[in-house]
Task: inverse folding
């Protein structure tokens, strides 16, 4: 747990504070993202936690102890630190880079070596990178080494300063996903700085939105931030796609699915007709013992006794229950049937319509 | 002109073969004088560089003073020192060491200034003290630039050591001086050739040292 208590920072020679009376708490095991425009003091705030910058006033508590009770180098060895430019040591091999903090802490070489191998696997690198030098790795690989190095001594707290800012969007998205997977098993207390609101929403358990001069405008879980922005600044910073961004945070709720116009393949065509008129559609989904086969136009059933006589068309996109409502919306707007079909493997669970997404956002 | 009037052959090989022992001992003397100058000069330069890096304002006065040393003609410097320290190794080394300082300090400071800022931030952020960072991160990364300075200083010093012969400290300069005094070209040529060869050998040796100490820089060049 990290707690900032009325923390301010005024740099020498500057009249305006860089961080102004900032108080918030980072619960243990959560990712808190500091986000805001440039000049909002997010990086300054991060560096005050590991005392690379000393606050002008206020206190910072880490796991129940004031950060000032320990010498900065000792404090920092218990706090993982990842920066955008990575800062790998060019004269040391990847293994030696990862072993930085263990060697500062005086671990024996056997223990260090085991830990390095473990971390290389953990961050998804091949073991043969161990003896290479940083300049021989790609940007994405280097950033993975940066994360491994920060995790080496298993610190409870991790500070990440725009760690994925310098890699291309595809690699960034992958690194973000990997961080989520890592965090699901590691449960670190992470403070993450970014200027990218999408990254903040996607990674944060909570988001601290800062304004220029280090003023905290809102501190809330991303879903709450998007649902009820505290003021105009927040609304504006979140941008015009707030609704879409919220949809990306809400998972498909399988209990709220509609059965929709569905019939067994063995049913007579008349059953399909009544299902269609009940749901006001001109198509019907076809299942066989709970397995989704596809859908057929109502008109195409005219000369057939049973639904199964017509070859069903596959649904363009199907969703799993782990999908988000944003993916559901995508399925709805790109399909002829204007619904998102939710399946579990090949078992049909139900469908979502635009109306339901609308309700989910307004509830 | 004076040399051209002699009837001696340009180089007398029989004299060369009969004095190999002398050449060897002169070369060893030369190496010792060079080694002391480089070693002491490097240690002083490390100290002054650390001062310059810690207190940036001291860098200009430090380069100014060592620049003045560097610019004093060596003959004049020995002349000034002889009344103080006599015809001793100390006299020679004061001169030789002071010529290395500017080269060493400039390269050490430039090398450490060239360490990327993010490397420093990462090192401090992970719990390095600034002293430990200097020795384990900054100096190793600055090594290619520092060794480049050592190479220049070494070649310069090997040449300068020949001048210390005028205060009678031996070295290959003694052969050259002998040749000049006796109007005898053979020792003059031998001394010059050996001195130049020594400079080139030391320079090449330092290239090998650099390669051994900075394997990481080579792999970067290979990419």
Result:
């Amino acid at each position: 747990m990290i707690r900032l208590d009325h923390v301010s920072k005024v740099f020498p020679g500057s009249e305006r504070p860089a961080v102004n009376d900032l108080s918030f708490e980072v619960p243990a095991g959560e990712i808190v993202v500091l986000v805001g425009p440039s000049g909002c003091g997010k990086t300054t705030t991060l560096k005050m936690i590991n005392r690379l910058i000393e606050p002008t006033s206020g206190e910072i508590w880490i796991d129940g102890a004031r950060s000032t009770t320990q010498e900065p180098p000792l404090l920092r060895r218990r706090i993982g630190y990842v920066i955008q430019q990575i800062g790998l040591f060019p004269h040391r091999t990847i293994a030696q880079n990862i072993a930085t903090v263990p060697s500062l802490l005086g671990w024996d070489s056997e223990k260090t070596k085991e830990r390095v191998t473990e971390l290389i696997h953990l961050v998804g690198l091949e073991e043969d990178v161990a003896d290479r030098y940083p300049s021989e790795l790609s940007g994405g690989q280097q950033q993975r080494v940066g994360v491994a190095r920060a995790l080496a001594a298993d610190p409870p707290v991790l500070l990440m300063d725009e760690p994925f800012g310098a890699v291309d969007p595809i690699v960034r998205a992958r690194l973000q996903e990997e961080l989520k997977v890592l965090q699901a098993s590691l449960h670190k207390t992470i403070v993450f700085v970014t200027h990218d609101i999408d990254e903040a929403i996607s990674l944060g358990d909570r988001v601290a939105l800062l304004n220029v001069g280090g003023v905290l405008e809102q501190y809330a879980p991303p879903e709450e931030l998007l649902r009820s922005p505290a003021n105009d600044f927040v609304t504006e910073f979140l941008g015009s796609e707030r609704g879409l961004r919220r949809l990306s945070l809400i998972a498909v709720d399988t209990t709220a699915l509609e059965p929709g116009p569905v019939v067994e393949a063995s049913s007579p065509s008349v059953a399909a007709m009544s299902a269609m008129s009940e749901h006001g559609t001109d198509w019907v989904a076809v299942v066989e013992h709970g397995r989704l086969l596809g859908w057929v136009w109502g008109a195409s059933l005219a000369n057939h006794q049973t639904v199964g006589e017509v070859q069903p068309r596959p649904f363009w996109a199907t969703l799993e229950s782990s999908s988000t409502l944003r993916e559901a919306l995508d399925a709805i707007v790109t399909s002829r049937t204007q619904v998102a079909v939710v399946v579990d493997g090949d078992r049909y669970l139900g469908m979502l319509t635009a109306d339901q997404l609308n309700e989910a956002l307004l509830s | 002109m004076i040399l051209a009037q002699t009837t001696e052959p340009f180089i007398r090989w029989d004299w060369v073969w009969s004095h190999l022992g002398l050449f060897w001992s002169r070369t060893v003397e030369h190496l010792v004088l060079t080694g002391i100058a480089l070693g002491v000069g490097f240690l002083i330069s490390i100290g002054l560089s650390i001062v310059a890096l810690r207190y940036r304002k001291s860098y200009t006065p430090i380069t100014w003073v060592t620049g003045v040393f560097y610019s004093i003609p060596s003959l004049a410097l020995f002349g000034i020192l002889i009344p103080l320290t006599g015809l001793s190794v100390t006299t020679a080394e004061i001169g030789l060491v002071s010529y290395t300082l500017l080269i060493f300090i400039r390269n050490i400071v430039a090398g450490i200034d060239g360490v990327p800022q993010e490397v420093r931030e990462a090192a401090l952020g992970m719990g390095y003290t600034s002293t430990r960072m200097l020795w384990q991160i900054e100096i190793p990364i600055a090594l290619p630039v520092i060794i480049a300075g050592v190479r220049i200083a070494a070649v310069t010093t090997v040449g300068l050591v020949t001048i210390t012969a005028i205060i009678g400290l031996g070295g290959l300069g003694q052969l050259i001086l002998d040749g000049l005094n006796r109007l005898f070209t053979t020792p003059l040529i031998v001394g010059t050739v050996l001195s130049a060869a020594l400079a080139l050998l030391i320079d090449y040796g330092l290239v090998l040292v650099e390669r051994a100490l900075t394997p990481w820089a080579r792999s970067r060049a290979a990419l």
Observations:
- The mean pLDDT of chain A is 91.
- The domain at 2-247 of chain A is CATH 3.40.50.300 (Rossmann fold).
- Chain A has two domains: 2-247, 254-362.
